[in-house]
């Protein structure tokens, strides 16, 4: 028999130590190769310096630029709860030479869209200058040379992740630029003096220059473009108004903000601003206000940009007071548009230094002819309003979660309203369920809303992966901001968690799960097509129910061992394929989802009943619910089986009890119970009452018939 060759133990030990010693060298060599991809002409890469932490790339003795890792400048967490580690290259002029993804844990790219979608996204940063604000998405598409911002395409289904990547790139690049590149370093920071205040009216604010008044006349515009404004679309040239009349003011200074917004409004503004953020009020009227008619609140204006040191600073609409700025403002003017814009911390805007407000003018004559120009109003606030401090090197991280909530404000409002309506349905379920037809129509409409809006549009499909993330966060480094990244998911999870301890798991599974709603609709199709349903015995049904619990028990320990592996195994859920990616995926995943949905045509909600690990996890927590509001009466199960026979989910036992671990709270049993023409016990009682009434009436008639023959009273 052949003998295996065996290395001496001392040699094996030596090889192990050699691997441990050389592994950092191999990692450094791999990083150098990545840097060379950012600077292909580099002949040498200098070792990483300490302050600031960058790698310098040279071609002979000529500096090509700097490479740096985002984790040295930003601790922004991705949707997975861990930072996205990027390698960023930038030349001495502030132009990005490229961005490479070194490490990430974003589920939508690892197990959904594929990593190539992320790589394609970061490729857009190549040759983009950080002298222009870089914004993800936008109706206008990629920026042209005349635009004040650079717009790059986002990634559908991965909005949160790519916004975090963009903020990470900007925060890291601007931090390096301010320390190493000429023209980027700002002067000493200025902080408004908090105690400097005196009451001033509008005229006094204008006189002191605290409110700037700027008028762009038609003659200025016509002189700049070289011809008349007549013939341009969206311009009412018959009006006597100027081309654009603007008022703007820096609101962080109490002597300005308090006088304009009032004490309560100023305090509210300071509460909404994050550390080191600043606010700018802009009012405008005329032919060309500072935002177009179709401006979307909580976005960056395309017509307006703040300038300082010849670098544009992006402005973000705060949608302050839900856009009703004039309700708070003590001003005699009646502008066409009024907004308060946020100046983010990473821009390092210094209000004590000279600045300018630029109006970008884009005039459309027709779909072929377009005229672009810009006008700038220079201004400088009184330095006496500020305390001058030493410049800070790194700005505070931008609160991405707040940006996401502001950007999706209307989705948040609509989902919040839907959750309030659902709460009302469960509180007054007995009153509502008396109207059988109306209730069924309402439930059908609500499920349609859940599938189309919550699921397909707002991407609010909860998943067992969310449970993994929560458990791991509770185990180590819990940070609520990770869960606030997606406002719709956060709202649904919060509502579901509370409802678990009130009514059990069924509120989510029966009303708020998009995939569950899709299965229910397939059940409607099966009824319409008269597809014969497979009969599953109570014994087999009870055994199959344990399958989803076994899947959950298998997934949770794996998550603590390897979150990546657990996320791959969580593909047992077809949610990502059907709801998140809408079946645009490789064929094995699509086939699996289609098979599960197909089984739902023959067994009502097959996946929910027997496979769903999310439902199993919710059922385990739902065991501690406070209320059992699905009313039962003495006749339920003894002998009446009407509700059991109509319960398509199989959650009503033969003795009439409801299994709340499996019930999806469709409320069909309550509809039956509260409708006299459906509840068997009520129908039987009514028949007995009618029979007794007829018998009593017959006796009364018989008594009346004998009454004439009775003897008269003495």
Instruction: Give the overall average pLDDT.
Output: 80
User: Which segments are poorly predicted (pLDDT under 50) over 5 or more consecutive residues?
Assistant: 1-7, 15-26, 139-146, 391-398
Q: What is the number of E strands? A: 18
Oligomer: single chain
Radius of gyration: 34 Å
Q: Helix amount, in percent?
A: 40-55%
Sheet bearing the most strands, described? Answer: 5 strands, antiparallel
Give the termini distance in whole angstroms: 132 Å
Q: Provide the domain count.
A: 3
Number of helices: 26
Q: What class would the helix/strand composition place it in?
A: alpha+beta
Q: What best-fitting shape do the alpha-carbon axes yield? A: globular
Strand order within the widest sheet?
1-2-3-4-5
Residue share in β-strands: 5-15%
Description:
This protein has 26 helices and 18 strands. Helix 9 (409-427) packs parallel to helix 14, helix 14 (487-500) crosses helix 15 and helix 18 (546-561) crosses helix 23 (613-622). The chain is of the alpha+beta class and 714 residues long. The strands form 5 sheets. Strands 1-2-3-4-5 form a 5-stranded antiparallel beta sheet, sandwiched between helices. It has a 5-stranded antiparallel beta sheet with strand order 9-10-11-15-14. The chain has 3 domains: 25-138 and 150-180, no CATH class; 190-388, no CATH class; 402-626, no CATH class.
């Amino acid at each position: 028999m052949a003998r295996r060759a065996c290395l001496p133990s001392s040699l094996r030990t030596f090889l192990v130590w050699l691997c441990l010693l050389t592994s950092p060298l191999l990692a450094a060599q791999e990083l150098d190769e990545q840097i060379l991809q950012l600077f292909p002409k580099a002949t040498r890469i200098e070792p990483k310096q300490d302050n600031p932490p960058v790698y310098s790339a040279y071609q002979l003795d000529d500096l090509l630029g700097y490479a740096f890792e985002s984790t040295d400048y930003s601790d922004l967490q991705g949707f997975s709860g861990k930072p996205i580690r990027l390698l960023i290259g930038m030349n001495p002029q502030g132009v990005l030479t490229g961005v490479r993804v070194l490490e990430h844990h974003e589920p939508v790219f690892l197990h959904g869209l594929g990593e190539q979608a992320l790589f394609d996204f970061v490729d857009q940063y190549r040759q983009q200058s950080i002298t222009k604000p870089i914004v993800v998405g936008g109706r206008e598409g990629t920026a042209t040379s005349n635009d004040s911002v650079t717009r790059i395409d986002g990634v559908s289904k991965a909005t949160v992740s790519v916004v975090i990547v963009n903020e990470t790139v900007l925060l890291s690049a601007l931090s390096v630029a301010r320390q190493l590149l000429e023209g980027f370093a700002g002067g000493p920071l200025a902080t408004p003096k908090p105690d400097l205040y005196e009451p001033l009216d509008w005229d006094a604010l204008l006189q002191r220059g605290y409110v700037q008044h700027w008028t762009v006349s038609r003659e200025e515009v016509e002189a700049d473009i070289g011809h008349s404004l007549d013939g341009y679309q969206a311009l009412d040239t018959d009006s006597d108004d100027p081309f654009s009349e603007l008022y703007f003011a820096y609101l962080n200074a109490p002597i300005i903000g308090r006088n304009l917004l009032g004490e309560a409004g100023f305090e509210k503004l300071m509460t909404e601003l994050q550390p080191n953020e600043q606010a700018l009020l802009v009012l405008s009227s005329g032919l060309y206000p500072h935002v177009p008619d179709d401006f979307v609140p909580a976005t960056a204006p395309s017509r307006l940009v703040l300038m300082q040191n010849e670098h544009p600073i992006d402005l973000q609409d705060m949608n302050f007071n839900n856009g009703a700025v004039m309700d708070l403002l003590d001003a005699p003017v009646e502008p066409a548009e009024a907004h308060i814009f946020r100046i983010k911390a990473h821009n390092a805007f210094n209000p004590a230094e000279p600045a300018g407000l630029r109006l970008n003018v884009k005039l459309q004559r027709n779909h072929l002819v377009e005229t672009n120009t810009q006008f700038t109003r220079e201004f400088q606030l009184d330095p006496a309003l500020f305390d001058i401090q030493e410049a800070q090197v790194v700005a505070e991280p931008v609160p991405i979660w707040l940006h996401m909530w502001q950007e999706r404000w209307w989705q948040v409002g609509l989902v919040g309203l839907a959750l309030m309506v659902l709460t009302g349905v469960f509180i007054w379920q007995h009153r509502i369920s008396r109207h059988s037809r109306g209730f069924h129509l309402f439930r059908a409409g609500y499920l349609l809303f859940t599938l189309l809006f919550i699921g397909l549009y707002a991407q609010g499909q909860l998943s067992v992966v969310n449970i993994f993330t929560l458990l791991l966060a509770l185990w180590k480094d819990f940070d609520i901001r990770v869960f606030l990244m997606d406002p719709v998911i956060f709202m649904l999870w919060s509502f579901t968690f509370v409802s678990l301890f009130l009514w059990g798991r069924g509120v989510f599974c029966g009303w708020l799960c998009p995939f569950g709603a899709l299965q229910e609709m397939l059940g409607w199709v099966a009824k319409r097509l008269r597809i014969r349903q497979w009969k599953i015995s109570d014994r087999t049904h009870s055994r199959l129910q344990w399958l989803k619990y076994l899947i959950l028990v298998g997934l949770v320990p794996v998550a603590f061992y390897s979150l990546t592996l657990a996320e791959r195994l969580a593909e047992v859920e077809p949610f990502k394929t059907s709801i998140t990616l809408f079946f645009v995926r490789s064929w094995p995943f699509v086939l699996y989802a289609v098979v599960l949905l197909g089984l739902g045509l023959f067994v009502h909600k097959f996946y929910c009943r027997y496979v769903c690990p999310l439902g199993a996890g919710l059922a385990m927590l739902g065991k501690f619910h406070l209320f059992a509001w699905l009313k039962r009466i003495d006749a339920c199960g003894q002998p009446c089986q009407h509700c059991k026979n109509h319960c398509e989910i199989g959650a009503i036992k033969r003795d009439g009890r409801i299994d709340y671990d499996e019930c999806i709270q469709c409320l069909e049993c309550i509809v039956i119970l509260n409708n006299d023409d459906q509840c068997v016990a009520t129908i039987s009682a009514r028949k007995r009452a009618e029979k007794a009434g007829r018998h009593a009436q017959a006796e009364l008639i018989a008594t009346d018939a004998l009454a004439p023959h009775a003897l008269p009273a003495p």
